[in-house]
Amino acid sequence: MKVYFIGAGPGAADLITVRGANVLGQVEMLLYAGSLVSTEMLAYCHADAEIIDTAELDLEQQEACYRRAQAENLNVARLHSGDPAIYGATAEQMRRLEALGIDYEIIPGVSSFTAAAATIKAELTKPEVSQTIILTRVSGRASAVPDSEAIALLAAHRATMAIFLSGPHLKKIVADLRLHYPDSTPVALVYRASWAEERSLQSTLGQLLGEIKASDWNLTTMLLVGAALSKDIAAESRLYAQDYTHIFRVVKKRPGQPPGE
């Protein structure tokens, strides 16, 4: 008996990994968060699999499912939105599985922050602009953010930031970001990246709140911010430069080129 924590990806059913989809087709029991994971994912499941929506189950009730699967020698898939490593509430489940002596495996998935970047056709890092991505969120009822990781402090780095579940807190987030980022800094809001109802808006930090109705972005919204989002910055890596040599590509000297050049 084994439990597989599978990243379902950001929403679209075909953004699950091949490995994740294959495991869904093999296990006898599936636990999935129906409030976050598209039901289209269930098409990958074996026809006889027991499918349990955990949206209304607390952690003890979910543990009871694992215990029953252990007693009946059933393999289980636990399907989480995005990637299980990011805001997945998986660590507490792993601890309980370890206490029960149940083996488990983690299958990563596509995160919503990379899906959001794909939606707006942006690279989140650019040479000499930003080589750091900060993934964060604001405190909510389910999980508090440490004071040392407040957005107003993280913003001091002026790196690219991806702020999860930002919708209900946009006014405060923008105010905190403006303490360090210029008002001209590009920002993007992406709602339900890769879902059929996906929508996005690109603006600047100083103009954003004047261009939206905040309540329209309350749920499942990602906020991206940083100079790297700018289409006007033409920073290029040296990796593919004609004169850049590495172990896989040796630059041939041009006729008449002096030694050492």
TrEMBL record:
This is Precorrin-4 C(11)-methyltransferase. Keywords: Cobalamin biosynthesis, Methyltransferase, S-adenosyl-L-methionine, Transferase. The keyword S-adenosyl-L-methionine applies. Residues 2-208 form the Tetrapyrrole methylase domain. It comes from the Bacteria. Belongs to the precorrin methyltransferase family. PROSITE patterns: SUMT_1, SUMT_2. One of its GO terms (molecular function) is precorrin-4 C11-methyltransferase activity. One of its GO terms (biological process) is methylation. Pathway: Cofactor biosynthesis; adenosylcobalamin biosynthesis.
